[in-house]
Amino acid sequence: MTPQPLSEAEFESLSEALERLGERAMNLEQLDGFLASLVCGPEEVSQSECLQEVCGFDVMNHAEAASEPSTQTLLALLSRHRDSIAHTLRSGDVFTPLLIADEHGKYPANDWAKGFLRGMWLRRGASLMNDEEHGGSLVPIFALAHEHDPDPEMRPYKEPIPAELRERLVVGAAAAVMNIYRYFKAQSMAPELSVRDSLTYRRSEPKVGRNETCPCGSGKRYKLCCRRMTFH
Fold first, then answer.
1. 4 three-class SS
2. Is 150 strand, coil or helix?
3. Residue 221 pairs with which residues in a beta bridge?
4. How far apart are CA 175 and CA 200, in angstroms?
5. Residue 177 to residue 170: CA distance in whole angstroms
6. Mean pLDDT lowest for which of 56-65, 111-120, 192-201?
7. Rg (Cα) of the chain, in Å, rounded?
8. Which of 66, 72, 85, 187 is most buried as measured by Cβ atoms within 10 A of its Cβ?
9. CA angle (149, 215, 200) in 5-degree steps
10. Which uninterrupted H or E stretch holds 85?
């Protein structure tokens, strides 16, 4: 059965439910990246563990919070949105990240990328970071996530990302979700085959050499830019 995508009104309800949980909870953009990562990943994450990560605390063991109507709304809408993302990736449709405009009407996509990486670190999805053949899919996601990193050494750019480059990174991040999904799907469906053999025909971008210019657009060499962040 095809899951029904959330309507604009339901996304608004989901956003409000997250806001009521306080500063520790993810916002809607982070949630979308986080759920996309879980769908892509190689291991299932329980609903309770997922909810704890999203809310910033174990809401199901907090009697008052668990009984709140907003929590039940959050559970229902979160599950449907995750199912909708999974259906998109299974069917091979184009994945589009849910981004929120800032006060200037721009769509930085930083929160989405951070949410995606939180999902990768939650399970063995982080193993992709150590795969030099396919780990390049994470380059645009890392570039967006670390744009304003407190550690200047982790930032791929010294200056704010220009609009044209940001658009390319967002498009690259969306394509990366589909590539990462296929990467782990191939592992689970054909464990007797090497990942390299099973994915050769799926590669959409050439492998980036360590000394080549980083595809994120920073102008630095790959080994000194996003490869360093990816495999740090």
1. coil
2. coil
3. 213
4. 17
5. 11
6. 192-201
7. 18
8. 85
9. 120
10. helix 69-91
Q: What pTM was computed for the model?
A: 0.80
132-162 burial by CB neighbour count: b if 16+ within 10 A, else e? Answer: eebbbbbbbbbbbbbbeeeeeeebbbeeebe
Q: Looking at the predicted structure, is the pLDDT value of residue 97 above 90?
A: yes
**Residue 56, phi-psi category: left (phi > 0), alpha (psi -120 to 50), beta (remainder):** left
**Tens digit of each residue's pLDDT (9 = 90 or more) over 69-95:** 667 788 889 999 999 999 999 999 999
What the block records as the tokens of 44 is 């299932």
- DSSP output for 165-229: HHHHHHHHHHHHHHHHHHHHHHHHH-TTS-HHHHHGGG--SPPPPTTSBPTTSSSSBGGGTHHHH
The Cα 28–Cα 197 span in angstroms is 37
Q: Quick one: CA dihedral 45, 89, 10, 168, positive or negative?
A: positive
